[in-house]
User: Fold this.
Amino acid sequence: MTVMPTAAESGLLNCHHCMQLARAVCIRAGARCPRCGASLHLRKPHSIRRTWALLIGACILYVPANMLPVMITSSSFGRQADTIMSGVIYLWNSRSWPLAAIVFIASIAVPMIKLAVLSYLVTSSQLQWTTRRRSRTRLYRLVEFIGRWSMLDVFVVALLVALVHIKSLAVVQPGPGAAAFAGVVVLTMLAAMAFDPRLIWDRIENS
Amino acid sequence: MSVDPLSDELESLPRVHSAPSRRRVSIVWLVPVVALLIGLWLSWKTISERGPLVSITFTTAEGIEVGKTRVKYRSVEVGVVEALEFSPDRDMVLVRTRLHRSATKYLVSDSRFWVERPRVTGTSIEGLSTLLSGAYIAMDVGKSDKATRSFHGMEKPPIVSVDRPGKYFTLRADELGSVDTGSPVYYLRLPVGQVVSYELDPTGKGVDILVFVNEPYERFVNAQSRFWEASGFDFELGPTGIQVDTQSINSILAGGIAFQTRANAEGTQPASDNTRFRLFKRKQAALASEDLEVIPLRLAFQESVRGLSIGSPVDFRGLTIGEVKKVSALVDEAKGQVRMVVDIDLYPERFRAMRVKQDHKFFGTKQGLDRLVGSGLRAQLRTASLLSGQLFVALDFFKDAPAANIAWSQTPPLAPTVPGTFTELEENVAQIVRKVRQLPLDQVAADVRRTLKTLDTTLEQSTQLVRSVDQKTVPAVGAVLGDVQKTLTGADRVLAEDSALQNDARDAMREVARAASSLRLLTDYLDERPEALVRGRPGEELR
Assistant:
């Protein structure tokens, strides 16, 4: 595979806002766009560091998101607090296997995969691996694409809380897990945004 | 460096100078720190909100489901069953329940747990709501300060919740009778409490029954209160006859305990919690044993004590002044005799002295009793009812009784007795029998037989006489009667209206009447013309 030179290698960078192309004197971030005055950088600044920070934050929140109840249902027959996993188990036991699968994939597997994929991408970029760059880029696109669908659970809970509010018969309340889950989703989206996929293609300086 | 054709154009691009990064530590690292803080806070909040885990032991986990069965206190949910386990020895089921945090302070050593299920007893149906909602673990909060996390579940719901106002009393009974946990306690037939529990005395000689009397009725219980078994239907055949006493239908079914307070208990302080009382079998017995002063006496009889039972009355001229406590036989080795010994309790309070202030003291003292015995007071066994053969002990004065006194040296003191009326009666009957036996019955029988024979011949003769009368005299009488009949018929004919005699007589009478009228005419004529008698009628001369 022929190695194509990158713009950064050629000392070129463009403004993210007005798309003005400029030539960098020294390849460093922190310059200003000569046309619109926006800050210019060859790569997203501190991309790896930021992605890591957001990723770690998401990982931390992933634990309470799955351990704590997302939804608390109070009905005349009693109070029930459900975590995501207990909901999946309930659906599975009540023979709604497709639903159980959907909830499991959307709420447990996808965030986990996202965390894992982003970690892989950041690690590989940080260590400047040169293999499988195309598939890594594809992975990144995938992660960015599914990011916007990850809030399904939170939407469901929010809807139920708003809809099922029949006093004395049944009340649905959001649990602390819902907030954590929302945090996980937001942080992973931010992490995906903070990651600069161009880093995948950056060659090692001295190669 | 680069020979690219584009390089010239690139050269014309504006140049920017990049400044070195100012911050060494990026602010972005705050994100994981904040996430960590949030995560820790959420976890801490959840864990701290999680109430205590309580383990309750039950013999069976019937109706209890993990995650479903609730723990309720006064029908308010305070927890949920989290796990079911066996105790190490597999004797019990450990029900691990997660209680709400707010319920932590209720977990004291005397809090109680039981499984609420539908229950049908003789008098009530409870827990019907659990038919729909399923069984739940009910809780009753205790008053202790000692916190604990493991409890022994009760198999039955407690009769009285801890915070119910009222008082507990312990009743000592000889036997449990028809009382059961939950049996009502009545005061003037008003249900005022319940039997909470009962247990056998450690010595095995009685039963301690714990009852609870609700507020405000508990203040009617005082030292003068008497408790008895009000077990519905009381049928008693005693010396005083047949007695039937019934309580409400409820207590007939479930049994019960009643209590009453003595009328003269004014001003007595209400009994304190856990006061002990005696439980009597019957109302009569309960109210009878109000006598506080008791004189035990021993009586020795020669006769049978069949029909005398413990509790039989000691009677003084119809007034019950004591009761029989014990009946036994005593062997007098020196005399070679067996005496029936009857121990009685006398209640001297039932006597009143003339002098009001002394009251019963005279009867209650040694001197008083000695004087009474000196005046002839003796004990005697009497038959209360010939039908049932019940006996009672009678105290009465016997003027002709041999002198005796009470042997105070013995315990209980031995009081003198006289043979019972029934014994006397027996002796009299025996005498009669003896006399009857001495009669020359054979001779009498022979005489009777002879007399009977004579009577027999006499009867035969009279029969013959009657027969001869029948055969001879009766036909003659018949003939005479026929003649009489004939005579009477003749007379009848003579006397008949159309008979000749009658006609003749009538004619004769008519003639007599005519003669009489002629005579009257004559006398009238003569009255007018008396000379006619001499001269005759004047007309005749002219002619």
